[in-house]
């Protein structure tokens, strides 16, 4: 598959890069240190119209996941948390776009696209992280609606969301076919947002526990046909994983940027640290892996934009997410090493990149799960 950036996509890249450097970079350290939701950054992204990027023209968007990846990369290069603000808006949007009926789309998507509404999606439970089929939250029929009972963990953005798209089982069976997604407004009786998690990274966009105790939602809040929610979840994740990969590319590029600046300004044994061959090889390896990740991510994003689906897209998306997030962790680790003792000080930004990179290897399906997806699809397609 061949792709190239359009003039419009390059304009998005240049705009976001400039804004990231001039208006966002200076806030990044404070956002991480305080662990508070950066409303000013949300307002800035809304002002720039970036929430609409990956979605259809009908909602004011560019219909381009590749453009979304460019924006995420440039934001993540200076502030992982600000980049995250886009993603947490896009995943519930994608779920409703994939499984919602016309009435649901008209009710929720325009507001999500402009930032007038904020959403979240909640699948993870204490006993089932990447195992979506293992969730225990139940949705039992009650007249023309459902009663949802159960608990969730790590629901990012729930503290500010107007609604949460919640995964629940409509039957007692453990099969994936019993899962559905439900739009649960924040003011629903029996629906409670629990305490904020004190996270290692991604601290500026808090995650919460959720509790549902006979929370009633009408049938019109169910996405898709009953029992088909698992497919919607998987399709949503496949479409969003290149964007997760773009976060890894941005983190890695930002970590390398900081490392280069640091070693340029330091001297040891009578010469600049950056003149040592061993150090230069570390930088070269960083650059090689970052560029490899970037091309994998852009290719997967262009595949989404071209309409590719099924196992082919699932494999490409998993490869992009896995390689880019592993690269972010590797580059951030080496960058901390190049900082020496300063790398473990909270006064320097590089440990923020290290912590955020570790989170990225786990969220949206651990990298072990990505490898399972890749291996399963590759082996099923191999000649006999």
TrEMBL record:
<dbReference type="InterPro" id="IPR009075">
    <property type="entry name" value="AcylCo_DH/oxidase_C"/>
</dbReference>
<keyword id="KW-0285">Flavoprotein</keyword>
<dbReference type="InterPro" id="IPR009100">
    <property type="entry name" value="AcylCoA_DH/oxidase_NM_dom_sf"/>
</dbReference>
<dbReference type="Pfam" id="PF02771">
    <property type="entry name" value="Acyl-CoA_dh_N"/>
</dbReference>
<dbReference type="Pfam" id="PF00441">
    <property type="entry name" value="Acyl-CoA_dh_1"/>
</dbReference>
<dbReference type="InterPro" id="IPR006091">
    <property type="entry name" value="Acyl-CoA_Oxase/DH_mid-dom"/>
</dbReference>
<dbReference type="InterPro" id="IPR046373">
    <property type="entry name" value="Acyl-CoA_Oxase/DH_mid-dom_sf"/>
</dbReference>
<keyword id="KW-0560">Oxidoreductase</keyword>
<comment type="similarity">
    <text>Belongs to the acyl-CoA dehydrogenase family.</text>
</comment>
<dbReference type="InterPro" id="IPR013786">
    <property type="entry name" value="AcylCoA_DH/ox_N"/>
</dbReference>
<feature type="domain" description="Acyl-CoA dehydrogenase/oxidase C-terminal">
    <location>
        <begin position="227"/>
        <end position="378"/>
    </location>
</feature>
<dbReference type="InterPro" id="IPR036250">
    <property type="entry name" value="AcylCo_DH-like_C"/>
</dbReference>
<dbReference type="InterPro" id="IPR037069">
    <property type="entry name" value="AcylCoA_DH/ox_N_sf"/>
</dbReference>
<feature type="domain" description="Acyl-CoA dehydrogenase/oxidase N-terminal">
    <location>
        <begin position="6"/>
        <end position="116"/>
    </location>
</feature>
<protein>
    <submittedName>
        <fullName>Acyl-CoA dehydrogenase family protein</fullName>
    </submittedName>
</protein>
<keyword id="KW-0274">FAD</keyword>
<dbReference type="Pfam" id="PF02770">
    <property type="entry name" value="Acyl-CoA_dh_M"/>
</dbReference>
<feature type="domain" description="Acyl-CoA oxidase/dehydrogenase middle">
    <location>
        <begin position="120"/>
        <end position="214"/>
    </location>
</feature>
